[in-house]
Structures are given as C-alpha cells and as structure tokens.
Design brief:
The protein has 134 residues and is an alpha/beta fold. It has a five-stranded parallel β-sheet. It is 54% helix and 12% strand. The chain has one domain (2-132): Rossmann fold (3-Layer(aba) Sandwich). The radius of gyration is 14 Å and the shape is globular. It has six helices and five strands, in the order βααβααβααββ.
C-alpha cells in the first residue's frame, strides 16, 4: 500500500504539468491494480485549495469520484496522530502538512509515499514518483 500525497490529486484537478503521469497512477488505484490511502487531511486541503480557486464544480466531481476508487481508502487522522505530527515536524524540519502525511505513512507501514514533494526524500519511508509505480 502507498500513501498518496495531496499534490498527486492537485496535479490532475488543476491540470498541472504532471497531470498525465498522475492520472495514469490514479487509474491504477481506481481499477484496484494498486492499493493506496489518502488522509482526510489531504481531502480537506484539496477542499480549501479548490474552493479558494472558485472551482467548486470540479471539487464536487472529485469528491464523488473518490468512492469509485477500488484501491483507495481514506484514513482519518486521530488526535494522537496530529500530536505525533507536531513532534515529527520539529524533529525532521517538516511543514505540519508533510508531517501528518509522514505519521500516517509510519502508522500504516506503507511501502512508500507517492508525492513530488522532495521533503520526503530524507525520511525513512521512501518518496516515489507516480511514474515509478506503473
């Protein structure tokens, strides 16, 4: 199982430069060919970003589409996860959002974090580009 970082979904939703690579990976999750997890924190972050850009229509499609992913589950962070994330953010010089992702990755013992965020490169769980999975 892989933890899927927020930026993988945002690449697609915002039609960024790595959209095609991310869509191919996300299709693997949709079809259940790979297993992944997204945090509720990521979903809320996407909500805030898309709403701030006035993209509620796309946001609604995204949220409805999440239930169609056969290989993706949603992890709801606990208060203990968030406390651990604050500690890890200091220990590893991470932003809190990255620390939350990392804590969940550690908790679930995932194979890697699917992300373009290079901050994960110096941590124990490997960061993996989506193209490396396919």
């Amino acid at each position: 199982m892989y933890l899927v970082d927020t930026n993988i979904f945002l690449e697609v939703l915002l039609s960024r430069s790595k959209k095609d690579e991310c869509e191919r990976f996300l299709n693997y999750l949709k079809e259940g060919k790979k297993l992944g997890v997204i945090t509720d924190f990521s979903i809320h972050s996407i909500l805030v970003i898309m709403e701030g850009l006035g993209r509620r229509r796309e946001l609604k499609i995204f949220l409805r589409g999440l239930s169609a992913y056969r290989g993706l589950t949603v992890y709801t962070t606990t208060l203990a996860d968030e406390i651990n994330a604050v500690e890890i953010s200091y220990e590893n010089n991470l932003d809190l959002d990255d620390a939350i992702q990392y804590v969940v990755a550690l908790t679930l013992e995932v194979h890697g974090i699917i992300s373009f965020d290079k901050h994960f490169d110096r941590l124990r769980i490997p960061r993996i580009d989506p193209s490396a999975i396919m």
